[in-house]
Automatic annotation (TrEMBL):
Organism: Salinibacterium xinjiangense
Pfam families: DUF6459 (PF20060)
Name of this chain's protein: 3-hydroxyacyl-CoA dehydrogenase
Length: 146
């Protein structure tokens, strides 16, 4: 009987689905209709990122609005900016800039991509952002300052 007991249990075990914890406990996508207007977040994140790179704002202040990958990317940029300021002897100052045009696109439900033009006295830059609805709020999954 011991030879038949394991073979009888094998088919039962083979039909069982593997538990994937991310399906239940990971980030859950949200529909655009279930989320607030992303325009204020796009503008505020742009302002914050410019100030963070200038050294006038702490990166931690936007940590809840960005994914881990974006946070690490911005952290590298912050370190490089701080090294450049230190090498040239420039002090940290709050940047003076104005937000120009904002172009916003919705490539799919629950995702918004935007390009924000930022003007200051010396140059004009573009900030590209991608927001995705995760856990019933917008989170930046990509931010690039050009």
């Amino acid at each position: 009987m011991s030879a038949t007991a394991p073979s009888a249990a094998a088919p039962l075990h083979a039909t069982r689905q593997r538990f994937v914890p991310d399906e239940f406990f990971g980030q859950q996508p949200s529909s655009t209709s279930a989320l607030p207007d992303p325009s204020p977040l796009i503008e505020n994140l742009t302002r914050a990122v410019i100030e963070i790179l200038a050294g006038a704002r702490d990166l931690e202040q936007i940590s809840r609005w960005v994914t881990d990958d974006v946070y690490r990317h911005l952290l590298k940029r912050v370190v490089l900016s701080a090294r450049a300021r230190h090498a040239t002897g420039r002090a940290v100052t709050r940047p003076h800039f104005s937000i120009g045009s904002i172009s916003q696109f919705e490539p799919r439900d629950g995702a918004v991509e935007a390009v924000v033009i930022v003007h200051n006295r010396v140059r004009t830059r573009a900030v590209a952002l991608r927001l995705e609805g995760l856990d019933s709020r917008w989170r930046a999954t990509a931010i690039n300052v050009l």
